[in-house]
Amino acid sequence: MIEEEIDGLDARIVDYFDVIAGTSTGGLIVAMITAPAIANPTRPIYAAKDLAPFYIQHSPNIFPRSRRDNIANSLNNLLGGPKYDGRYLNSLTKRTLGNITIKQALTGAVIPTFDIKRLQPVIFTTYDVRYIKKQ
After folding, report:
1. Rounded CA separation 36/101 (Å)
2. Distance CA 121, CA 112 (A)
């Protein structure tokens, strides 16, 4: 990677951006590349080069292909229900990131999502937890 050639093998995306955003599994990517490592809390747990192997390994379980695309599933999708149940992604996130919160992100982070139960958008940001909550 170019940044490694310029800044060495320890170069990470958080070193170059003030804010990183992602929605859906892009939110997981944001969390992975901005979350501090336990062994070295000034550096992220994952580098960009770790993302493709991670998704190759886990995407079949994050996005399972249902052999039973039946009427009930189709109706659920039409009514705005989630396409995937999210259980695997939830457990994977807990295993991958533990109890790390967005407040600990090594750079600004924005993760827009949607609350299916309340039918409204929810935006997680480092700005909210670092600045607005203090006021």
Report:
1. 10
2. 7
